[in-house]
Amino acid sequence: MKFKTVKEGEQAVVFNHLGQGTLIIGPQRIFLFRKRIEYLQRYTASHYEYLIIKDKDGKVMHKPGPCQMFHNPLEQEYIYSEKGTKIDANHVVVVYKKKPDNSVERRIIQGPTVFMPAAEEWLHDFKWHGTDPADKARMIPGHDVFTQLAVIPGQFYYNVRDVRTTDDTMITVKLMLFYELKDITKMLESTHDPIADMINAVCSDVIAFAGKLTYEDFLKKTHNLSDLNTYSQLLQRAERVGYDINKVVYRGYHASQQLQAMHDNAIQSRTQLRLNAEVHEQKQRLTNFQLQQEQARTNQRQDMEKQRQQHHQTMEQMKQGHVLQLSEMNHNGSLMENDMETRARLECEKSGNEQKVEFMQTLQKLDVDMTRYLINQQPTPVDQEIQVVRSGTTPTGGAYSNTRV
């Protein structure tokens, strides 16, 4: 016999000697006689957690947090807390729910959000090919196990091994694939591992591409491996499973050591020949450039000389034209001056003659004998010479007219 206290915020179950239990919710103080007390464990869930409760009758219930609950062994078989699924941005989860008619409903939840499933719900588990941590170009089946599906573009490296050409050369083709999920429903209904489908399809395309070519032809056409038109099977399979192939990048190839050594030697020889050809071509270009420059300088000198001659001729023509213009101006000036002098002289003579005529008319009016006047106006002709001689001197002479005094 003893007393027990159930504190506030606690719960307990008291069992009697017959095994019957009674739930005690604190605060209480109870007396135990032929009884046993069992304190109940309390379970709590935060905002990002939920409680899973399974009753004795098999019913399961999920209670989202924040909440608390005591594990009552009279009613519940177990209680435990689980964290909710934090869905990141650009991620989705696929949720299945069992209906009362035993059918299953599927829905897709887009992030970002926190998902807490109900008791009749569960998440789809994806199990795909994943990248080998030791070799990024090798894919391991079932390596990636996850519940959140990324809906952003992704990529992976892959080496297509044991690719045989028509001349029985074994090579490994290195690729990088860029893909993007477009239709989640089609993907869920068409495949359980789309990465495996892409790998198989790209292997088929590469093998078909190389199987028609020799090793040398393959090396010449490797640029086609970066063209999406080369991967018809990959594009068709990706479209069937709800994916788009954005790009395929050819990263190179790998062959056996002996073949690679032979190829490296051939590349070295071709490179040396190409370098020699480039050096010779550069020399020829330099020579051609020098000749072109010399020819350009010669043409420039000829053009300069031609321009100088043209300038000289132009100056001479302008000079001669100026001289002719000056001569013409002087000649015209002389002609104008002579004309003016002639006109002035004629005007003077005319004026003198008019004065003489007027004078004669005046004399005539005065009854002057005009004949005698005109004769007297004429100079007397010289018809005799008189010499006067003095002693001791040289005789001097003079001319005299025969005019009588």
Describe the protein's architecture and organization.
The protein is of the alpha+beta class and 405 residues long. It is built from six helices and 23 strands. The protein is elongated, with a radius of gyration of 67 Å. The protein starts with a strand and ends in a 5-residue tail after the last strand.
Features:
405 residues; alpha+beta; 4-stranded antiparallel beta sheet; 3-stranded antiparallel beta sheet; 23 strands; 39% helix; disordered C terminus
Show the helix and strand layout.
Layout: E1 2-6, E2 11-15, E3 21-25, E4 28-32, E5 36-39, E6 42-45, E7 49-55, E8 60-64, E9 67-70, E10 76-83, E11 85-87, E12 91-98, E13 104-110, E14 113-115, E15 121-123, E16 126-132, E17 135-146, E18 148-150, E19 154-164, E20 170-181, H1 184-190, H2 194-210, H3 215-220, H4 232-240, E21 243-255, H5 257-365, H6 370-377, E22 384-388, E23 396-400
Antiparallel strand pairs: 1-4, 2-3, 2-5, 6-9, 7-8, 7-10, 11-14, 12-13, 12-15, 12-18, 16-17, 19-20, 20-21, 22-23
